[in-house]
């Protein structure tokens, strides 16, 4: 009996050792397996290549539309981008050499400029341009802003600068207004705004619009535009903001713009009125600080009276000669 119990005890200890050994072995296997999985996953980071459909960029097919509208003849070029081929290629050269416009991997300078001019000439939507030129909407948008930035770098060279009416002008409409730079006025452009902002954008006629200031030369070329003001704001307030901005409207002393009766008659801005003649002369342009305030003065009022009298007397003289 003692031998049997001793044998059972030895078998139990042996079984216990075997279980411990197997447990240790399984744990070692799990550790080795985890280590191998970790090494395999780390190696796959450098060897894995996703199966992505390759984008086939047909360069010549994408430029086919550009060739048809710009390179074939001047008639189609003028119709699509509002300039002939010589002017178009000159603009491309200026934007590349002086404006900083760069050729991309898949798009040349002429295509970028063509997209930009096509959009602003016909107010074409992004999706239409993308379909015609076979480009994505993001590419068209990025191209437009790149060309726009290049054009802004050429503003000193491309933008029209106002020139005063000379003393010996023969234009019967403008010869009275010596040193006049042009005319300006405000206009309302209807917009959609949130409900909470409609009261500020409501005009005196009840429309929801923005008050935009436009300034042009005597030959109707715009030299300055200021959008963004609410429709309820008076024209004089918009003008005051324009001349006080850092890069706003510049009016040299001795020059002026023609304005309507909604603006204050003051130095730099001649408003209409009924008056009588008195000789007065405005000094020519001098290199001084531009006008930055809208304040009526007696000198400017007297000059306006003199200008009106001079125009009336000249008109009477011309009528007498005709009779």
From TrEMBL:
Its cofactor is a divalent metal cation. It holds the Pfam family DDE_Tnp_4. The keyword Hydrolase applies. Residues 63-152 form the DUF8040 domain. GO terms for molecular function: hydrolase activity; metal ion binding; nuclease activity. Belongs to the HARBI1 family. This is DDE Tnp4 domain-containing protein. It comes from Erythroxylum novogranatense.
């Amino acid at each position: 009996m003692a031998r049997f119990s001793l044998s059972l005890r030895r078998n139990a200890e042996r079984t216990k050792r075997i279980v411990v050994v197997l447990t240790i072995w399984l744990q070692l296997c799990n550790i080795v397996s985890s280590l191998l999985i970790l090494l395999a996953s780390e190696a796959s980071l450098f060897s894995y290549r996703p199966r992505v459909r390759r984008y086939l960029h047909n360069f010549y097919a994408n430029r086919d539309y550009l060739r048809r509208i710009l390179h074939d003849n001047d008639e189609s070029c003028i119709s699509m981008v509002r300039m002939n081929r010589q002017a178009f290629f000159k603009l491309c050269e200026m934007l590349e050499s002086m404006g900083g416009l760069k050729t991309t991997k898949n798009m040349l300078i002429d295509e970028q400029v063509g997209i930009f001019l096509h959009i602003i000439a016909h107010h074409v939507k992004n999706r239409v341009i993308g379909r015609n030129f076979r480009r994505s909407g993001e590419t068209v948008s990025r191209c437009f802003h790149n060309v726009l930035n290049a054009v802004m770098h050429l503003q000193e060279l491309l933008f029209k600068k106002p020139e005063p009416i000379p003393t010996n002008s023969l234009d019967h409409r403008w010869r009275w207004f010596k040193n006049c730079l042009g005319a300006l006025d405000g206009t309302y452009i209807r917009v959609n705004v949130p409900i909470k902002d409609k009261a500020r954008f409501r005009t005196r006629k009840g429309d929801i619009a923005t008050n935009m200031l436009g300034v042009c030369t005597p030959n109707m070329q715009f030299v300055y535009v200021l959008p963004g003001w609410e429709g309820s704001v008076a024209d004089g307030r918009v003008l005051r903001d324009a001349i006080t901005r850092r890069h706003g409207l510049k009016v040299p002393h001795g020059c002026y713009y023609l304005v309507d009766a909604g603006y204050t008659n003051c130095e730099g801005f001649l408003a209409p009125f009924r008056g009588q003649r008195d000789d007065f002369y405005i000094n020519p342009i001098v290199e001084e600080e531009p006008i930055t305030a809208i304040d009526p003065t007696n000198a400017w009022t007297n000059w306006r009276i003199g200008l009106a009298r001079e125009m009336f007397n000249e008109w009477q003289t011309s009528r007498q000669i005709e009779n």
